[in-house]
């Protein structure tokens, strides 16, 4: 939902920007190139006007050609420099990086500055378990199975085992 709203807002801003650019372009053209009144000119005046316009077009074309040549030269130079950088990277051996242990508090301090008051002591939030309770649960009577082999044989023995498994809760 948020992403679609952001896309819609960006689309509106882009359309508005396009309209503003078009308006600026029209203003610039009105200032720099006012409409020409050709209906009151003579044939000689029209010829001189055409010659002036062609001369201006030639100047602009020459400038455009020069700028394109400079751009091509700069792009070639950038490519060459990128290749040199890649070659230099390959020549030097990179050291192996060591893993550094950083606590959560240190990370927060580096991100938020020394102003952060929240402490991320995760061990304090853990439950504490008493060892005595776990040891009592583990110590179940272990008896010698060989003593009760005959007593547990048959259906009566299985009933005793079943009752013992259910426990004293009943």
UniProtKB/TrEMBL annotation:
Kindly name one Pfam family recorded for this protein: Troponin
What GO terms describe the biological role, i.e. biological process, of this protein?
Answer: cardiac muscle contraction; skeletal muscle contraction
Keywords in alphabetical order, please: Acetylation, Actin-binding, Muscle protein
Keyword Acetylation included in the entry's annotation = yes
A single Gene Ontology CC annotation of this entry is: troponin complex
Q: Which Gene3D superfamilies match?
A: 1.20.5.350, 6.10.250.180
Basic and acidic residues biased stretches: 15-33
Q: What protein family is recorded?
A: Belongs to the troponin I family.
Function, as annotated, reads:
Troponin I is the inhibitory subunit of troponin, the thin filament regulatory complex which confers calcium-sensitivity to striated muscle actomyosin ATPase activity.
Q: What protein name is recorded for this chain? A: Troponin I type 1b (skeletal, slow)
Gene encoding the protein: tnni1b
């Amino acid at each position: 939902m948020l992403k679609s709203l952001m896309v819609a807002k960006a689309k509106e801003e882009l359309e508005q920007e396009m309209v503003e650019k078009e308006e600026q372009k029209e203003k610039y053209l009105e200032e720099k190139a006012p409409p020409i009144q050709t209906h009151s000119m003579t044939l000689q005046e029209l010829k001189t006007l055409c010659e002036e316009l062609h001369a201006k077009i030639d100047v602009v074309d020459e400038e455009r050609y020069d700028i394109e040549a400079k751009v091509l030269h700069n792009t070639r130079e950038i490519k060459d420099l990128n290749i040199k950088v890649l070659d230099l990277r390959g020549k030097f051996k990179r050291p192996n990086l060591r893993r550094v242990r950083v606590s959560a508090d240190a990370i927060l301090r580096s991100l938020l500055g020394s102003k952060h008051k929240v402490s991320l002591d995760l061990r304090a939030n853990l439950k504490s378990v008493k060892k005595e309770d776990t040891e009592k649960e583990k110590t179940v009577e272990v008896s010698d199975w060989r003593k009760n082999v005959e007593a547990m044989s048959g259906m009566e023995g299985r009933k005793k085992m079943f009752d013992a498994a259910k426990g004293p809760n009943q």
